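Problem: given the chain below (432 residues), write out its structure.
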Amino acid sequence: MNILKLMRVLIVRSRYIFASLVLILSSFSPLPTFAVAKYDPAFFGKNDILFYNPTDTGCPTPSADGLTGDTNEEKVWNYLVQKGLTPEQTAAVMSSLNQKSNLTTDAIDSTSYGIAGWSGTALDNLNTSATSNSKDASSLAFQLDYLYTNLNALKPTRPENVSYPSVWAAVSQQKSADDALVVFYGEFMEGDLLNFDQPASSEEHKAEAKKIGTDYSTSKAAIIEQLSGDSSANGLNPDGSQGAQYYLTTYNGPSASKCVASGTAVHPIKDGDGVNEGYGGPRPGPGSVYCGGMKWHNGYDLQASMYTPVKSAMSGTVTAIDYAHPALDTVSIKNSQGFTIRYMHMNTGHISVKVGDTITTGQQIGESGDGNGAYGAHLHVEIDVTGNTNPQVAQLHANSCGIKSVNPNLFFKIFGVTLCPRTSCDNPTTEL
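Solution.
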């Protein structure tokens, strides 16, 4: 018998042996049935098992109250940056609030309540506002709106801040977290926040001020010491609460969650109503940039008649103003998160900023033009992501064609702004 015949015999015999075993086992008990395992987040969470969640849809969508995030920390951060504060300013406000309330929306003790620790007349006003507006006073969304409204209504009292129209305005002009801490805590937490209807000589004001020193001129260093956070201690304050550095590291650093907002934006043209040409190639209009064998468009051409005010879509610093072809009256503004937004073909002689200026979100930087007669009136906006540190922006496909650009419409959507009012405004190819 050769080897092939021997193998055939063994295979046939093994089939009979397997069938016999099945019959023997089935005579004793029925074969068990197995249910498909279900995804149980409670089980995996309690047992510290790393797992893949098959039902995960990505970043959380806004809840019914309009807030985005899984925790109060995330929701407060997102709310403040969406209202226009920089990460540094937001971290300062959050450190101050957290030390007072641990960001709870309920009673802190027998006299203080909510994320800002409202008490006395301030607490009465909070409840009155909630009742008159049919809101739940313990709602985080309501408390944030109430806080925002009062910050915009409250006038600064410290000599170095009185030129600002409100405490919110004063905080929003500070460049560092420490400076924002001094303004917010000194103007709001130390004094008017707790009892803004009572004089600064009240006992509650005195008690609060005593924590950091009764003399404001000597308490600035104490505010920073108590609330800035120690970078060598994971950004925590001396009392163990989260400091400004903790929030900056957690929500604005390289390891920050891509689901957390990192800034706010506005449409650069008031009542922007259209796009003359979108991103990518081959572009139908004029242009001298070629990549991938086609004419390429690195930005969006927004509809704008001559002399239309142009606003800075985001905060930043003016790094360049270029009047030469092909830029033709371009203002470049670099955001604190590394990316640069360029506004091209503006009106010659109507650019109202200069290199080195610090720009706030929504600030007018000039007026639209027609590229010295070369292109017709419109505003070209492009995003250069060279040096970007924003984790959400880093998820966008970047094309290297003269600059390292991303699709402006996708970029602005991250920050809640839509440039394209149609289903699509882009050229056929958007990725090289």
